[in-house]
Amino acid sequence: MKPANPRRRRRKVMREKTCRLCENKIFQIDFKDVELLKRYTTEGGKILPRRITGNCFKHQKLLAIAVKRARILALVL
Ligand SMILES: [Zn+2]
């Protein structure tokens, strides 16, 4: 369905704004967990910003450290 008034279009689809890592009670992020890291990085290997992932500050920080470690070991691009 198209919106009646195109000017009142919302930008993109509203996503859940909850930290999935908190939900799953993951409090340690292993840099060897490539599948998890991939979920929070772009195809180019960049870390997705918090406003997209919806992560909390704590987890975003942990994630960034894990991704950087994985980069050193060339697990993630
Ligand atoms: Zn969290």
Features:
77 residues; mainly alpha; binds zinc ion; 30s Ribosomal Protein S18; single chain
Task: Outline the structure in words.
- With 77 residues, this protein is mainly α.
- It has a single domain, classed as Ribosomal protein S18 (30s Ribosomal Protein S18, Irregular), CATH 4.10.640.
- Helix content is 39%, strand content 0%.
- It has 4 helices and no strands.
- The longest helix has 16 residues.
- The radius of gyration is 16 Å and the shape is elongated.
- The N and C termini lie far apart (39 Å).
- The model has no long low-confidence stretch (mean pLDDT 84).
- The structure holds zinc ion.
- The site of zinc ion has 7 residues, from helix 1 and helix 4.
- Zinc ion (ZN) binds next to helix 1 and helix 4.
In the CATH hierarchy, what is the architecture at level 2? Irregular
Instruction: Classify the fold: give the CATH topology.
Output: 30s Ribosomal Protein S18
**Arithmetic mean of pLDDT:** 84
Query: Roughly how much helix do the residues carry, as a percent range?
Result: 25-40%
Note the beta-strand portion. Answer: under 5%
**Ligand set:** zinc ion
Number of strands: 0
The CATH C-level name is Few Secondary Structures
**What is the CATH H-level superfamily?**
Ribosomal protein S18
Distance between the termini: 39 Å
What best-fitting shape do the alpha-carbon axes yield? Answer: elongated
How would a crystallographer describe the biggest sheet?
A: none
Q: What structural class results from the helix and strand content?
A: mainly alpha
